[in-house]
Amino acid sequence: MKDINILADKRDELKADIDREDSMAKVNSMLTLLNPDQRACIVLRELQGLDYKEIAQALDIPVNTVRTRLKRAREALVSFARWGVESHEVR
Amino acid sequence: MKCDRVKELLLTDHADGELKAASKESVKRHLEGCAGCRELEKKIRAARSAFRDIKPEEVPPHLWYRIKEAVSAKEAKRSAVPVDILGALKDLLFGPRYVFARATAAALIILIVVFAGLAAHKYYTESPAYYQNITGMESFDINGADQASDMGTEIEKYFL
């Protein structure tokens, strides 16, 4: 019984690792769609959790520029998501 | 609120929780009656969900120390050199930040050459040698002392 529990735990850990690697691969491919300026803003916002003011200070740019770069970045990401879904459906 | 404005907010302030209460309410009301904007909001949430699934890498403390040491060493090296004129000039001309430095230097050199050329041209064309060269006559200074000097002719009595 103990062995079964250990195996179940291992399986959950493995599944979590695989999910994490999948997400990492997805995020990496999404980030390649962005130019370096957009990528910096998206990473600071989505991964580091900084707000607009903090991103502006970190990158030494106006808050409105942060807003514009995030907007363009998300437009690209949404287009990518749509493309990803369509290509998945074709397969 | 119109769709264009709502779409812009969905991609920025709305997604990032930076909207004020009144605007938030307006967007919410718009979304209730607009399928297109609702669809966009759904797509934005889906695109952002990938980021939520991964956590940022934890940076080990020793890496921070190494970065700090490297920055301090660079600053110390910079302050140790009192005046690096050659380096400053090199930075100014070839540094990646001064993108217009070379253009400015070239423009200055061209200006200096053009002005020097104009000055030389003016000096030469106003010289007696030039006048004599193109007219075959010796120049004379009509405003100078020569005019006042008596040349011993009769007509000078009436005109000078």
Annotate the secondary structure layout:
The complex is a heterodimer of chains A (91) and B (160).
Chain A: H1 2-31, H2 36-47, H3 52-59, H4 63-90
Helix pairs in contact in A: 2-4, 3-4
Chain B: H1 3-11, H2 21-33, H3 35-52, H4 61-80, H5 85-94, H6 101-125, H7 128-135, H8 145-148, H9 156-159
Helix pairs in contact in B: 1-3, 2-3
Features of the shown structure:
heterodimer, A: 91 residues, mainly alpha, Arc Repressor Mutant, subunit A, 4 helices, 86% helix, disordered C terminus, B: 160 residues, 2 domains
What does this protein look like?
Chain A is built from four helices and no strands. Chain A is elongated. The longest helix of chain A is centred in the first third of the chain and has 30 residues, at 2-31. Chain A has one domain (2-90): Orthogonal Bundle (Arc Repressor Mutant, subunit A), CATH 1.10.10.10. Residues 85-91 of chain A have low confidence and may be disordered. By secondary structure, chain A is an all-alpha fold. With 160 residues, chain B is mostly helical. Chain B has two domains: 3-52, no CATH class; 61-135, no CATH class. Chain B contains nine helices and no strands. Chain B has helices at residues 3-11, 21-33, 35-52, 61-80, 85-94, 101-125, 128-135, 145-148, 156-159. In chain B, 9% of the residues are buried. Classes of the chains: A mainly alpha (91), B mainly alpha (160). Chain A binds chain B through residues 19-20, 23-24, 26-27, 30, 42, 45-48, 51-52, 67, 70-71, 74-75, 77-78, 80-82, and chain B through 8, 11-13, 15-16, 18, 40, 43-44, 46-48, 50-54, 56.
